[in-house]
Amino acid sequence: VKGNHSAIEDVIKRLNTKIKTIVPNNKIKILDFKNYICLKDINFKYPNSKKSTLENISISIKSGEKLGIIGTTGAGKSTLVDII
């Protein structure tokens, strides 16, 4: 951790930076919630796929909470964010 101190400081600085959201032609609704979002036992499989991308995913995200989603390529990170 000590060797990556500057990288960690950069990540913390970026996490605390407000991001301006640009909504093209008002086609996208901005997700606004006051308490939390809760997903319970989410399963997802793409059409024409033999294997599920997500299986029994449960997560609760509090309003204002910062969350990192990590995993290997093809683990379902982007799919989970799309579902949220």
Describe the protein in words.
It is a single chain. By secondary structure, the protein is of the alpha+beta class. The chain contains two helices and two strands. Strands 1-2 form a two-stranded antiparallel ribbon. The radius of gyration is 16 Å and the shape is extended.
Q: In brief, what are we looking at here?
A:
This protein has helices at 5-15, 77-83; strands at residues 36-44, 54-62.
Sequence stretches where pLDDT stays below 50 over 5 or more residues: none
Strand order of the largest sheet: 1-2
Structural class by secondary-structure content: alpha+beta
What's the total number of strands?
A: 2
**Relative helix content:** 10-25%
Key features of this structure:
two-stranded antiparallel sheet, extended, 84 residues, 2 helices, alpha+beta
In terms of topology, how is this protein built?
Layout: H1 5-15, E1 36-44, E2 54-62, H2 77-83
Antiparallel strand pairs: 1-2
